[in-house]
Amino acid sequence: MVEAAAEERMQKGIGTSIDLTQARQVTAQAKLGLVQATGAEENGYLTLVSTLGISPLTKLRIADVSNRKISSGLAQSAQNAISVALSRRPDVLAAYSAEKAALAHVRAAEADFMPKVFMSGTGSYTNGNLYLTQVPAVGTQGSIGNFSSGGLGGTVFGGMSMPLYDGGARSAMLMQAKAKAENAGLALSRTRNEAIRQIVLSNNTLRTSLATYDAAGAVITASSTSFNAALDAYRNGVGAITEVNVAQSQLLQAKIISIDAHSAAPSAAAELALATGALGAAPE
Question: How far is CA 65 from the centre of its chain?
Fold first, then answer.
């Protein structure tokens, strides 16, 4: 557009070769930037297919997200994200379970120093029968053919045991259990702190991307107005080509920043979802 305006002024006899050369230089720089961006895109595509573990010759259809609306609702309070994430992140839950298990071992080792009280009991019932074919009568007592007897019995035992000397085995076991519990507690703290760091970093990145996208939109509007005014002034012979080039460069830079922020925001949102353990979870 600027190069065309410079050529138009040359044809009318009011332009200069310096203006045309500068306009062509800006056009060449823009083409160079396009070539570099295309190369970066191809390298990014190669990295993507390599990460997926498929052939680099595979052709994937990439969805166009340039028109996707970016909402400020993607960002959330870091404090809320932390409180929710710590209750569902697998690494935090695993570290918490390991600490609980280590503390249980400590309580078991301490219990070996306490006296043991025991009690046991048994119950029994006896029943006996004696059958005789004939017992002669004695006096007034008639003859008896059988005898039977039965009764209940029970036994109760109680006692207490307490080890007096074990060569320091119990103390060694207790110290070992406490050391494991301390290590488990430190591991839990490290895991929690790392989870919090990842969440805060992802949340800050997301907020920065959203703020940058909004700010870049305002800069694009202002730069477009400035560029159009400078170009019109140059076409009418009241402006310089340098002013047009500066305005065009500022407009291009604002557009690049807006595009980068537009693509960075969804990526930051995905990183935040991964850090909070919500990636792939069904919406509530």
Answer: 24
The string of pLDDT tens digits covering residues 29-55 is 888 888 888 888 788 888 888 888 888
Residue 214 and residue 95 share a domain: yes
Instruction: Read off the pLDDT of residues 199-225 as tens digits, 9 standing for 90 and up.
Output: 888 888 888 888 888 888 888 888 888
- Our measurement of the distance from residue 270's CA atom to the centroid of its chain's CA atoms, rounded to an integer in Å, reads 10
> Is the same domain home to 105 and 244?
yes
Say if residue 81 is in the same domain as residue 104: yes
Name the nearest CA neighbour of 112 among 176, 58, 59, 157.
Answer: 176
pLDDT higher than 50, residue 282: no
With a cut of 80, say whether residue 72 has pLDDT above it.
Answer: no
Q: What is the pTM of this model?
A: 0.54
149 phi and psi angles, rounded to 5 deg: -150, 155
Average model confidence (pLDDT) across the chain: 77
- 136 and 26 co-located in one domain: no
**Same domain membership, residue 101 and residue 124:** no
The reply to whether 76 and 35 lie within a common domain is no
Residue 67 resides in a domain: no
